[in-house]
Amino acid sequence: QVQLEESGGGLVQVGGSLRLSCAMSGRTLSMHAMGWFRQAPGKEREIVAAISRSGVDTYYANSVKGRFAISRNNAKNSGYLQMNSLRPEDTAVYYCAAREETRYTGNAFISDAAYPDWGQGTQVTVSS
Question: Which of 57, 66, 67, 120 could pair with 108 as two cysteines, CB 3.0-4.6 Å apart?
Fold first, then answer.
């Protein structure tokens, strides 16, 4: 059974940075594609960034392009989301998600329906 645990959220001022981590247990991260999603109060969950199993293919929502970076460290069984130049509209609960992918050269997945495994989320609050 896959377990995902996010960490690294918190309160930060506008323009600040945070690095979210997603630790996988129970499975090997190298066999999984990963995604980061977020949900703000009163809004639907949305994709933030995604990375393929190989790490070659990445996707970023337009709202975070150039500010956020997704990465993975298979040796540590962990994925990361580096968030720079944070804005108040980035305030949300951030979730990591994983999908076991048989194809090493597969693409990143951007739909939340594609991910069967989810973490509990970590709160990110950007104050102005």
Answer: 57
